[in-house]
Every structure is written in C-alpha cells, then in structure tokens.
C-alpha cells in the first residue's frame, strides 16, 4: 500500500489530508497551528492523520506542503539582516520606489511609505555599469568589490542580495560578483537578481531580490526542521512545496527561491477549488477560502485561475507570475469592536489560534465572528469531531458586554450585525476580483471553502446575485486537495524590448527557444519525463509609451508574422475587456517574453461515493437558529453531512455539520449532493 500526505499550515489551523491513490480513498484532519514553530503543528498533523487512517509512516511515498511561513516573515518583518550590493549611483532605488499610493490607503496625504527591508547604510555600491542592451560601459571593479566583501565578512551578514543595473540583459557581472561572494563571504547565502527576476524595472527587480534574500535563511531552516520532524516520525519520502503560481517544486528548488512560495497556502486552495468545480460541472468559478484569520478570493475562467505578474504583499511589489488571489483580514477569528466613534467594526485583527475566540475558553475576551455564529445557533457546541468544545455562555456575555450594550442592541442583533459587516467586507473582495477586472460575478459559481466559508456562502451569493454555490465535500481542508491536484510548475521570463514597427523575429524566436530549453532542463531535474513536459508561451505587451503591460498567450512553434498577428489581436481584445477600449491603430511594444513549464506531480483522483437511500435520511436534531430573513430564531433541521447520500436534495433553512466545517443553507435555497459528495446550492433570484 502507498499513500500521499498533503499538509497546509495556515495562520490558525494546520490542514492535513492523506490520500490512497490506488483506492481513491482520503482521510482528513485538522490541528491547531503552532505559530512559534509551525513544524510542530506539521508533525502533529502528520501523526494524527496516520493514526486515523491506520497507515504506517513507511507507506507515505510523498509529502506535499503549503505554508504561510514565507508570507508571515515578510508581513511581520521578521526576516534576516542583509546587505545589498548594487551599481554605483543606485543606492536609493529601494527608497525612492514608485510615486504611487496603495488603493487601500484611507488618506493619500497621510499614507507613509513602509520601511524598506534594508537600510541605506547596508547598501554597498559596486563600481560597474551596463546599458539597457547589456553592453558593458564600465567593467566590474573586482579589487573594489573584494574590499567591500571583506567588510561584509567582518560584519557577518547571514545573507547578501545582488541587484546590478540592467543585469536582466547581461548577468555576467552579477555572476562574477556572486563567485567573489562565495570566496570572500563563504558563510553568507547569496540572492542575485538575474536568477530571481530577470526583467526590467529596477525597483521591482531589486525589491524581489531583497525579499528573496530576506527570507532565505529562515525558510531554509524551516524546511530542515520539517525533514527532521518527518525522520522522527519514520516518514522517508520526498517533499514538494506549493508555489504562488499554483504549481509545486522540490524542497531544493523552493529553498533557493523562497519568495516564489509567498502565497503558497492561498494558491493551494484555489487549485483545489478548480478541481472540485470541474467535478461539479462548473468551469467558471469564484473561490472564497475563509479561515480563522483571512479570506482569499480568486476567479477561475474555463478551468484556469487568473494569473497576475503585479502582485504585492504588505505594500511591497511581487512581480512574479502568481495566482491572482485577493486576500483580506476576514475570518472566523476576526475580532468585533465598537470604534471610538460608536460604529461596529469587524476585523482585520484576528484572535488567531491563541487565544482564539472567546468561546474557546482559552483566555480570549474580545468577541469574534465565531462567537457570533455560536450565539445565533449556526455552530454546534463542539467542533473537530468533539475535540474543540465551545462555550456559548462566554460568547454571549462577551457580545453583550462589548457590542450589544454600547450600541443599545439585543445580543442577537449585535451578533447578526457582526456577520452582516463581515459578509459585506467579503462581498467587496469578490467585487474587486470580478467586477473591477471586467467580469460579471453572476456568470460564475461561488465555491466556498475553509472552516468558515460555507457558513457565509449562501448569503454572499444572495448579495452578489450569483446563481450557484458549491461547497466541497472536504471544504474544511480544501487547500490540501489543491496540493493533491497540483502540477510541478515553474515560470521563466526575459526582457526583450521590441517595437511593432521594427520587429526582430529571429531574436524573438531565439529568446523563446532559450527560455524553453531552460524550462525543459528544470523539469528534467524535477523528475518530469520529456513526454510529460508541457510548455506555454506568453508575452507582456503594451501600447507604445504606456507604463504598464498586459500578458497574453503566444502560439507555439516558430515566431512568424502570423503568430505575432495572433498575439497582437489577443492583446487588443484583452485591453478592451480590461479597460473598455482598444486602439489597434497605435503601435504595440513587446516588453517581456515568458515560458511556463509544468508536468504532473502526484495526481490523485477521488472515487465517487456510494449511494444510499436518501429518503431515509432524517435530521440528527432540531436547533433554534437565527435567520434575519425569517424575523429571528426558528426551528432548523441539522443534518450530519456524513450521513447524506449523492442525490440528496434539501431546501433551507438547514444546517449541515462536518467535523471540519459547518454549512448553512439559507431559507429558500435548494441544495443537492453530487456523486463526489460536493454540495451544489441553487440561489433563487
């Protein structure tokens, strides 16, 4: 027998799945995350699911892992001290940045630029210079470089970042400087821009290189801890790490460029959502993954998640190909407070896993969204199969004292208001992912996952006019299903500026061919057979003199006038969709060429569930649940999800309980269970 473990470490809980690919069987578990050392929660989850399944550590043939470790290091500014080596005259590239203000800034005149990860006194200028074509204007001054490196060795920096001007066009100086670093600073790790992000725009490329360096030592240590934890459990299997682009890579590859895993956890949930939506018969879906701390929203069209190369994290740019996930501070642990102005606020602060919501009884005093659900009867008094007992009286008192009394509301009105505010916050995130990008959410199904997503999905669909909601069979641990559905994947980019009036087809063809050769070599090192390798071309285009680009596909095969014409047509069409206009009469510039490489990892296909006599299914209990649409509390049937059979149909109001999540079917909503145990709800217009 053999099995595959998939483990996603979130901010509040660690989700675990164990799959038997031969039998199509799946076991799932959830355990609290251990923020001080996430590897402890990882090991506890692995041990828990092995015991639950009856499998032995020796039967585990692969471990798939998604994590927020890199994300948290950046958000909490807990990375490593580092020094930056840059071209003479470019010391302040990071600090100048861009002359823009984040959209979420409440007041552009009060917004303060976030502190940079490396201060000017730790930025060292190297005498050298290239022009934008890669031509050497000033040779690398090795003697001066060696003197600087001796200073850095004396200061014992654990990691060095190298970002030289125009290194994307010619990496020779960076490679030589890296060799000198290895000679004169042998204990320091090195991150170079021509490996991390070989494309133009100095600020973004330098920031990417610094971010990669900033988290390089800690992420490497974390992976080392994981391997030791696995050895202690007796698990001797290769590990793959989830990346922000929705693909996976070996630990060795992820450890070299940990910045590519910055959105690892959210990306895993999106991949899982797409797989489940396909099972349920929907190619177009908007996924919302609501955990204890955050909600992550992503749109998928024709079975493919939307990608962006203009992401950001903690107000810092991440110009890598990544799933276009919109994250907000909204989850089951979001704290409700009355502001000094007398209004009710929910989030973005979270009670997290420790102390958690008030109802956990672990020392929390501020009411949360979970407390509101419990008070309104939407949650059972025990979660995680009875492991987590909830105290409704504590939650009731906290909402009464801190929310209801200051606002002169009943406790039920206050709790319902908490849910309303969180719902509208999540509606804003869905609108930002759809309407603001040229999509109508009514053309999509809403797929809800995470521990809290199915509690809110029906109401979100009502507010947005979305006709269908999908709740996966394993909604509480869907991110692990994404890990089991992911491919090995990596992305390659090269800046090659070409104007439509003077196109060098030979240069374009050569550059794409070289990128594909890099991609094929990487896939081979990851163990992907040549027959299983898939390569996809793309290019970043813009109208001449624009300051932004749009990524569109490039047909396979030799670059010809016909293939370029198809690429240009795709650009005009995408510009029309995004900005409501196109200007085919204007010249177009090609800025960057891209190749995406993928191959199968450890695919798992769940088997359909056995059908039972759905007519015999009865509620496990009746519970008084608060529904504003019905004017208050009403007797509501509560069903055990595990007792339902494919083909089961229910009409709300109803509550469905799982070990890892709770599903609310709102009044007049209709629900049907499909062959794989996923629930598909139809929302009346």
What report would you give on this structure?
It is a single chain. The protein is α+β, with helices and mostly antiparallel strands. The protein has five domains: 114 residues, 2-Layer Sandwich (Nucleotidyltransferase, domain 5); 131 residues, no CATH class; 220 residues, ATPase, nucleotide binding domain (Nucleotidyltransferase, domain 5, 2-Layer Sandwich), CATH 3.30.420.40; 114 residues, Dna Ligase, domain 1, CATH 3.30.1490; 62 residues, no CATH class. Helix content is 32%, strand content 28%. It is built from 16 helices and 37 strands. The strands form ten sheets. Strands 13, 14, 15, 20, 25, 26, 33, 36 and 37 form a nine-stranded mixed β-sheet that branches. The protein has a six-stranded mixed β-sheet with strand order 3-2-1-4-11-12, with helices on both faces. It has a four-stranded parallel β-sheet with strand order 6-5-9-10, sandwiched between helices. A hairpin with a 5-residue loop joins strand 7 and strand 8. Helix 4 crosses helix 5 and helix 9 crosses helix 14. The longest helix is centred in the N-terminal third of the chain and has 32 residues. The two termini are 49 Å apart.
